[in-house]
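During the second half of the funding period, the structural biology subgroup turned its attention to how the target accommodates small molecules. The most pressing case was zinc ion, which had performed well in the primary screen but for which no bound structure existed. We therefore specified the complex as follows and requested a full 3D prediction, including the ligand pose.
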Amino acid sequence: MDAVARRRLDAIQGAAGRDAGLPVVVWSAGPGPTVAITANVHGDEVVGVAAAHALDDAMSSTLRRGTLLIYPSLNPRGLQQMVRVHPEEGTDLNRLFPGDRQGGGTARCAALIWSDLLARRPDLLIDLHSDSSVSIPYAIVDRATSLRPDARTEMEARLEELARATGLLVLHEYPPEEYVRFRLDRSLAGAMVNHARVPALTLEVGARRTVDPASVRTATHAVLRVLHHADMLVAPPAEPDLAPPSGAWRRAAAPRSQTAGLFTPALPPGARFAAGQVLGTVRAVDGSVREVVRSESRGIVVSWSESPWLEARGVPGTLGLEEQT
Ligand SMILES: [Zn+2]
């Protein structure tokens, strides 16, 4: 007989002063995997907060086995101020993990979050984010660059399997050199994979600064599908509304513009393109076409920027390029 799911409200251990009260909801239903859901490390990405609340609402009737840790906001002051950064120092909390207890306020905060998470011994972490209002939802597979080759292969295969379970587009991270240069190994998911050797996914769903019900549902169901994959739920969640585009894709910046102007996409998010296909145009305010932006290789449109007025060398969006495997 399965255990009854029980809820306990906790807080991040060791958080003091203005960081006091970073909440952790603990749902437990006896032995089984421990999965951590984190959201809102970027304060203006609020779909994940609402999805965390929806998961909390669902667990009493859904969790059959194991433990679900829900961290609805890792950056509550960023949430209140609707800013991406951690307001204390204006820096990106999601490039500082595993943090530094002797460091500045934001690094110290990262360290407190990190030690709280590891003390609860998660088998898997899912970190919820939002990209753009012009995007399709996707799951990111990190590069296990700091692991030895055999461990790396095993970890990346596990991440691929978990990412597929979300039912979202699966996007492999930038190539390893860029991955490290962009400090993505120090994002929460990247550090979990590379420093703690705990599988972790980043999900990017919906627009920033809004709580759009369809995106909340998409994020919630993506998490539920992973929990079902881990055999933790009473019943399978709903199938995805749309099957994700198949194939192996690698995250890449769209080709930079050479000139300033308004970038107008030729293709919607989710569209596939061939090498040399027109992705969009850069136009002056008077309408004259300054530039036609073409793809360099085959891929899929992931998102277009919410800052479509590009300066020269501006990046119009994010693509998934065909991964050569
Ligand atoms: Zn984010």
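Two results from this model are relevant to the next phase. Residues 42, 45, 129 surround zinc ion (CB under 6 Å). The first strand starts at residue 6 and ends at 11.
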